[in-house]
Fold this sequence. Notes:
Elements: H1 5-22, H2 29-34, E1 45-49, E2 55-62, H3 76-86, E3 92-99, H4 101-112, H5 114-118, E4 121-125, E5 128-131, H6 132-137, E6 144-155, E7 168-183, E8 186-204, E9 208-221, E10 229-240, E11 252-261, E12 267-280, E13 285-296, E14 313-322
Antiparallel strand pairs: 1-2, 2-3, 3-6, 4-5, 6-7, 7-8, 8-9, 9-10, 10-11, 11-12, 12-13, 13-14
Amino acid sequence: MILPCPVLLRLFPLIATLVLLTHAPRTSAADTADSADAQTSARTEFLWELDPYYSSIGLEIPLSRDALPDGKELREVQVYRELFRQSLRPRIMMLEGSVYPLPAAGAWLKSNHPDVYDDFDIGHLGDNQLNVLDGITAGFQEPWAISLFVGSAMRFSRKEEAADTRNRAYMGYLVSVGKKHIRNNTLIDDDWWEFEWKLKGERNLSDEELSWSFRAGIKNHGNPDIVDVAFFGLRRSNLDFDGPLLGIVANSNIELLTEVNQHGMRFLRQELTIGKKFPLPRQRFALSLDVGFIYEDEAKYRGTLVDPDADAFTLVFRPNIAF
Length: 323
């Protein structure tokens, strides 16, 4: 059954109340040991992120009096193992609103100034029309979203470095809703909702930044002409100011997303991008470039949204600056 966005939005307060009532604050000896050198108690925090491709504001609400465990300098695999162990007893709930500035701007430009948008056509690749703006903004299927996350969390710190709210890792369940869908930089009315299991994290230290995301779930659409999908995605990005410029793992990133039809398991969409960062240690930032492709099967849409002239392949080209 597909629940429209207004219904889900009205359910958010009820969901939050149920989570708070069913996870009464409690402590344990193990948790006390984990947080002995951390802050003395958990607290509600306001989090935000600004980026040309993904910007968000969120409210992180603790479901326990215990402070978040400190992963300090655990290896990635150890972080995953610890978060999985703790995920059986959720520690936090997060409400978040996110917007994707460049994809939203691309859709706005194509709708309001199509002649300007077409000026960025650069030729053809087979039957596909290549457009610079398509390549820069591709990979985002909605302009904004509202999300609710419940799960475990961990913070990272070094004694010699100041605390940073970006140094967090999460594992749990995420429900997201929205009212618009983006197809080839065209906005389509669609009350969609998404449910996923997600593991994500970000560790920002003085000499290295590492972020990762693994997720799997389903996405249902209120618009009957957009096919409901199941998906699996992963992303990993590294910035190491002391790492080798041409290293394979250091200063590189990869992102993969696969979508299939929920009912027929037909392959519908594949995204793959790889990227490289070029750090400037003295300036403390890096130039970044991601390249890749998106393949979209014609069966992803039906009815009024069937477009025999739609491009099956989109080349991805994302320049950025990483701080």
